[in-house]
Amino acid sequence: MKNSNRQLVCVAAGVGFALGVWAQAAPVPAVAVPDTAVVVPTNPPVATKVPVKAKKRTTPPLLNGSSTNTIGGMTITSERMEFDYKEFVIAFDEKVHVVDPQYVMTSDRMLVFLEGTNQIKRIWSIGHVVITQDDRRATCGRAVYERATGQVVMTEEPVVTRGGDRFTGSELVVWMHDQRVVGKDVHVTISPESLKNQDVKP
Fold first, then answer.
1. What CATH number should be reported for the domain holding residue 154?
2. pLDDT of 12-38, one tens digit each?
3. Beta bridge mates, 166
């Protein structure tokens, strides 16, 4: 009986060895590639970004009705007013009237640039600008006033008159704290009265 078992074990081992050798030697069948093989592109298309429409910036509507505002010791009256909190600019429209301790100014439109707390840095006056100060009067289409220096730069047919004197040019610059007038392409007309009032020294 023991001999029979040994023979069975040997036969089984031999069969297993033979199967293992056959498995190693047997060739792997080739897989047929179909004619319509899918070609993978080397540079796949990039997804197109759908443009996002930018949101239109909205500003507060103009306040209708007569408005009177006191800013930095200056009183400004107009028919409409708009305050841009982001840029810190106040826009005045229609019948703009400014009363300052040094002068009076009127125009069709005015932009007041602020800095700090209720402090005026710069004023742009646009359209039919008129500035009066004592016996001096200035008119132009556009004026830029710098509060720190008191300088006013006038363009668009500026004219400055003082008594019988008249100054015109392509650009005129005046200072609110003195009587200086400078400019470009200036034409000056001096009245005889002004010449008489001057003290001529030898």
1. 2.60.450.10
2. 444 444 444 434 444 545 545 444 444
3. 161, 189
